[in-house]
Write a structure and sequence with these properties.
This protein is of the alpha+beta class and about 375 residues long. It is built from ten helices and 18 strands. The structure holds zinc ion.
Length: about 375
């Protein structure tokens, strides 16, 4: 993912690493009393580089609508217009722009996620829920192809995959396919097996280090069954537990083919993780909550350890612009500081409070939610 100031918007939008928790916290804490904090999301799931007219059209109609409804936003809208040519080049990327020209704040985020979205919103706060879901959908994971003492090393995120050629492993483990036919003594086969085991042991440790280096959580391996049985044991030994495999049809598979098989495994692992977490939340009434009002209170008190952003009710709360209070819809004045309160979507309120208090957020993409609601795991 690339995070850049809009001054560099005309440069390549090739996604690079995202390491800015601070940027998210800053976005969550931003407040514009003139209601001109601009949130822009754009992406196409089914677009191709050759049929860009529809994308151009969607983008222009978003901008012209913004123009007619928000006076004084011309500078920020102009920045969006400069995106047109980039979108045309890479229509299947997810893009987010957060800007407020008066505060000279501009962030541009690009993720390798194909999703149909077109949002242009001006308000007191940036809208961050969609960004959190796109970040989750583009979490990096490690992919390995393992066969006969050789391993290919790859990193996948969303619909992007790249091979790390310099980490490719090839060990001479003395495997000769004609051993049996040539009647080699049994002890030679035993030695070869030992070398395979040693290779897999070392490989599992290298795989764990690589996973850490890319900031990923899952390992997906393409290999044959016999190799997987041994590798699974090695991964368990060193504490790498979010792993699964696909059947390796050939060591020289193309990148699109690897991505197709690996991403299916990755999504399955993600869904299992979401379901397990949701079950923990809904089963543990003492240290978890799935009630929106309670979650808001726990966030206020700093009690939330992890927030699961499932389905969030489409309702609003009244928020005070100067203190951290919020009230039911219909409230006009903050009890604490007598300020006029304003309506804000409850989903955005939860996301902002969670980001501002350093809560770990798990925000599955909508197609993986299967009706799971929002919940919080508490610290105590
Ligand atoms: Zn207040």
């Amino acid at each position: 993912m690339s995070v850049a100031h809009l001054s560099s918007i005309s440069k390549s939008a090739t996604p690079v690493g995202f390491d800015s928790q601070q940027m998210l916290t800053d976005l969550a804490g931003f407040f514009d009393e003139r209601q001109q904090a601009m949130t822009f999301y754009f992406g196409s799931a089914g677009a191709s580089a050759s049929s860009h007219e529809q994308e151009d059209c969607r983008l222009r109609s978003l901008i012209s609508h913004g123009q007619s409804t928000v006076p004084g936003a011309e500078t920020d809208l102009e920045l969006l217009r400069s995106l047109e040519s980039e979108i045309r080049l890479h229509p299947r990327l997810f893009r987010a722009v957060f800007a407020s020209s008066k505060h000279e704040l501009r962030h541009y985020i690009v993720l390798p996620v194909a999703t149909d979205v077109g949002v242009l919103h001006f308000g007191r706060h940036f809208e961050l829920l969609q960004l959190m879901r796109a970040l989750e959908a583009s979490q990096p994971y490690a992919v390995f192809l393992v066969e006969n003492g050789k391993a290919r090393v790859l990193k996948a995120r969303g619909h992007a995959i790249e091979e790390c050629e310099e980490l490719r492993q090839e060990a001479d483990i003395g495997l000769h396919p004609h051993n049996e036919r040539e009647g080699w003594p049994h002890r030679v086969d035993a030695n070869a097996e030992e070398r395979v085991d040693r290779f897999l042991r070392q490989f599992a440790e290298n795989a764990r280090d690589y996973l850490w280096s890319i900031g990923g959580r899952q390992v997906v391996v393409g290999c044959r069954n016999a190799v997987w049985n041994k590798l699974q044991a090695e991964f368990a030994r060193i504490g790498v537990n979010k792993t699964d495999r696909f059947h390796l049809t050939g060591f020289g598979m193309t990148l699109p083919e690897v991505l197709r098989l690996a991403s299916a495994v990755h999504y399955r692992l993600q869904e299992l993780g979401y379901k397990a977490f949701w079950n923990t939340l809904s089963a543990d009434a003492g240290h978890a909550s799935t009630d929106i009002e309670e979650i808001l209170k726990h966030l206020q008190q700093g009690r939330v350890r992890q927030l699961f952003l499932g389905v969030v009710p489409e309702c609003e709360r009244m928020e005070c612009p100067s203190c951290d209070s919020w009230y039911p819809v219909g409230t006009a004045i903050c009890i604490n500081c007598k300020n006029t309160v304003y309506a804000t979507p409850v989903a955005e309120l939860i996301v902002r409070k969670a980001l501002q208090t350093g809560v770990e957020i798990i925000a599955p993409p909508p197609e993986r939610l299967h009706g799971m609601q929002t919940g919080a795991l508490l610290r105590y």
